[in-house]
Design a protein that fits this description.
alpha/beta; 6-stranded mixed beta sheet; 10 helices; 15% strand; methyltransferase activity; transferase
Length: 259
């Protein structure tokens, strides 16, 4: 059973508190969107579970969004359909109701990941597509040198890829997703070559893992990163990342199709 927060949020993150500026910092990245589009194939009807403010919802498809957080539903732009107030673990649809199902940056926040994925499989005739992060790779990012507590939190929250595959069943493929240097979707690794951006509290707030660490951790991070950017220490250690057009980190696309 999902515990609901005041704004309806389900899972471990309180989007009534952290979601206010989400649409400003988490704009869909077209090159990631293309990976999703390829994975969905020719699906016409798609359910988007944990739809949030509508990132990665193609207007070329008939998308039914599902989002339990009232604050996130309120941020959806007018050209997208309103989201249904429901949780992944209890989707209010018939079996095989959609050509496909998708979820992006959401499974790590569900209270019962396996139940949610089984529900997605139940309501989709074709592919189930999950954009997520591999917890085994999360700590390889430069941020770990400055705020290990944040990435330790991420690694604990993201379900193992093998567990996702097992819950989905069928034929499962896992594909790394390269992150472009000017990525418009502001998750932590999107700033691999733009560390200055994470000095902005609003940018950090749009990544839910930061809400699980206390103020002294955030203050220490900002102090130490600012110091190393001003002294050149960050660039001496990680500056080569600024020259990389893409970064292959923990971001992966998991796709399951029925046998």
């Amino acid at each position: 059973m999902n515990a609901r927060r005041a704004d309806g949020s389900a899972g471990d993150a309180d989007y009534g508190t952290i979601g206010a500026g989400y649409a400003d910092h988490r704009r869909p990245e077209p090159r990631i969107e293309e990976f999703l589009s390829q994975a969905l194939g020719d699906a016409r009807t798609v359910v988007n579970v944990g739809a949030g403010a509508g990132s990665y919802e193609s207007t070329a498809r008939e998308v039914t969004p599902v989002e339990p957080s009232a604050s996130m539903r309120a941020q959806r732009p007018a050209h997208l359909p309103p989201a249904i107030d429901a949780v992944a673990e209890h989707l209010p649809f018939d079996d095989d109701a959609f050509d496909a199902a998708m979820t992006t940056f959401s499974v790590h926040q569900w209270s019962d990941v396996k139940a949610g994925l089984r529900e997605m499989r139940r309501v989709a005739r074709g592919p189930v597509v999950v954009l997520t992060c591999d917890p085994d790779l999360v700590r390889d990012f430069w941020l770990y040198a400055y705020a290990p507590e944040v990435l330790d939190t991420e690694a604990r929250r993201y379900p193992a890829i093998a567990d996702l595959a097992d819950a989905l069943g069928g034929r499962v493929t896992v594909r790394p997703v390269p992150i472009p240097v000017d990525c418009t979707d502001g998750f932590n690794e999107a700033y691999y070559a733009r560390p200055e951006t994470l000095l902005d509290p609003g940018a950090r707030q749009a990544c839910s893992a930061w809400s699980f660490v206390d103020a002294p951790v955030r203050e220490r991070f900002a102090r130490d990163l600012r110091r190393d950017l001003e002294s050149g220490a960050w660039d001496a250690r990680f500056g080569a990342l600024r020259q990389q057009p893409t970064y292959e980190g923990s971001l992966v696309l998991v796709r399951s199709v029925p046998e």
